[in-house]
Automatic annotation (TrEMBL):
Active site per database record: 115
HIT domain: residues covered: 21-128
GO molecular function: catalytic activity
InterPro entries according to UniProt: Histidine_triad_HIT, HIT-like, HIT-like_sf
Motif (Histidine triad motif): 113-117
Entry-linked PANTHER family: ADENOSINE 5'-MONOPHOSPHORAMIDASE HNT1 (PTHR46648:SF1), HIT FAMILY PROTEIN 1 (PTHR46648)
GO process annotations (BP): nucleotide metabolic process
Pfam families: HIT (PF01230)
Protein name (database record): Histidine triad (HIT) protein
Length: 166
């Protein structure tokens, strides 16, 4: 469906160690624009700028937090997990999906602002290319037009609004 393009890992590593990409995006910095799916006072959901699978989304708290559990009260954590569930379900309804991968990545050396990756595995991906292999950006990223990314973000947002958000 989409062609793959090579990915500059050195530039990505340098960028991930610079300003917080989520805080910069939320501040409106045009160098850190992403296709927004949903936001509220507590969290933001957007499409991955460097997708390895179609529909790859990220969910993050608006406030800069760095620990996946330690920087949250149990109530705040569970509220964020509810949104992650809702986004994953919206992705499954919008796209053909064999499995949804949900994980948090990043480290204190780069991409410190905690965020969750929600990656819908398309049907038919050979087993050896599934799981962490499908997320490996060093193998290339999908070449998706800005217009297609905007349309996808809108479709996911509409499904979220239809099924979950009041």
């Amino acid at each position: 469906m989409f062609n793959s393009q090579s990915f500059d890992m050195d530039a990505y590593e340098k960028r991930s160690k610079g300003p917080c990409f989520i805080c910069e995006m939320l501040a409106g910095n045009p160098d850190y624009q992403h296709h927004l799916i949903y936001e509220d006072q507590a969290a933001v959901t957007f499409l991955n700028k460097y997708p390895t699978v179609y529909g790859y989304a990220l969910v993050a708290p608006r406030e800069h937090r760095e620990q996946a559990t330690g920087d949250f009260t149990l109530e705040d954590y569970l509220a964020l997990q509810r949104l992650i569930y809702q986004v994953a379900e919206a992705l499954r309804k919008v796209l053909p999906t064999e499995r949804v991968y949900i994980l948090t990545l990043g480290s204190q050396q780069g991409n410190r602002h905690v965020h969750w990756h929600i990656a819908p595995l398309p049907p038919g991906v050979p087993y050896e290319q599934q799981q962490t292999a499908v997320l490996d950006i060093s193998r290339g990223i999908l070449s998706i037009s800005d217009e297609e990314m905007a349309a996808l973000a809108q479709a996911i947002r509409q499904e979220l609004e239809r099924c979950y958000l009041f």
